[in-house]
């Protein structure tokens, strides 16, 4: 952890540390000159080497590449716009499709305590169904000890209401259907208590 | 004696060893290495300072400002506790490698 802090410290104060190192190297050269050896070398290359040792050159290169890329794209606005559009459409379509799928298939049922709802099914070696005679449903309702409530739904073929041109799909449900699923019926039959 | 040799791979170890007795500025480190090796080894500034930079980054040395013999403000490098550990490690590894090389040269 302290290593990271130190490295960040060096990154943030890079210019200052570069200057300090340059100062050290100049001093070295002065002392060497006084001792009679003029081993100057290539100043710029030396500073580059010292900088490369700091370990953050990848960041600089990344920034340079990004700036170059932007410059090149700005020079060819037409193709840039086309590329952006293609990307946008491609990403947009995928996001829309996934959101749809997500809503339909992946999200849990939008009812309270969705993880506590179970559907009873009957199975044979070849098939299974969640349909059962009403009497079975009643049996489970009376005798099941682990169920806090039992609901049943009966689907019926679409029927024609009044003079509507479109048939209406309908289902019949037990009276506790709406209450258990945490919502309320839009119209309450007058005979319900 | 022939041309001085640059101790590139052992340089961090040599720097740490030289700093064991106290803080020195860059030129003094190079001088010490040159003289203590009876002028066999010579460290170029192009190698010394990047190495010192790496060691600063790794936390093996720390730098503090001081005044040189020529009345100039310059950084003095000093070994840290981490550097002391690293020196121990490198001395040990250097011994092992040397012993291994000697074994091969002797018997192969």
How would you describe the overall organization of this protein?
The complex is a heterodimer of chains A (193) and B (108). Chain A has 193 residues and is mostly helical. Chain A folds into three domains: 2-72, no CATH class; 76-107; 114-180, no CATH class. Chain A is 54% helix and 9% strand. Chain A has helices spanning 2-12, 14-34, 43-52, 57-75, 77-106, 134-143, 177-180; strands spanning 122-123, 128-129, 153-159, 168-173. In chain A, the strands form two sheets. In chain A, strands 1-2 form a two-stranded antiparallel ribbon. In chain A, strands 3-4 form a two-stranded antiparallel ribbon. The longest helix of chain A is centred in the middle third of the chain and has 30 residues, at 77-106. Chain A is elongated and about 110 Å long. The two termini of chain A are 67 Å apart. The mean pLDDT of chain A is 84. With 108 residues, chain B is an alpha+beta fold. Chain B has one domain (11-107): Winged helix-like DNA-binding domain superfamily/Winged helix DNA-binding domain (Arc Repressor Mutant, subunit A, Orthogonal Bundle). Helices cover 56% and strands 15% of the residues of chain B. Chain B is built from four helices and three strands, in the order H-E-H-H-E-E-H. Chain B has helices at 11-18, 26-36, 45-58, 81-107; strands spanning 24-25, 61-67, 73-79. In chain B, a hairpin with a 5-residue loop joins strand 2 (61-67) and strand 3. Chain B is globular. Chains A and B meet through helix 1, helix 2 and helix 3 of A and helix 2, helix 3 and strand 3 of B.
Question: What are the main properties of this structure?
Answer:
heterodimer; A: 193 residues; mainly alpha; 3 domains; two-stranded antiparallel sheet; 54% helix; B: 108 residues; alpha+beta; Arc Repressor Mutant, subunit A; 3-stranded antiparallel beta sheet; 4 helices
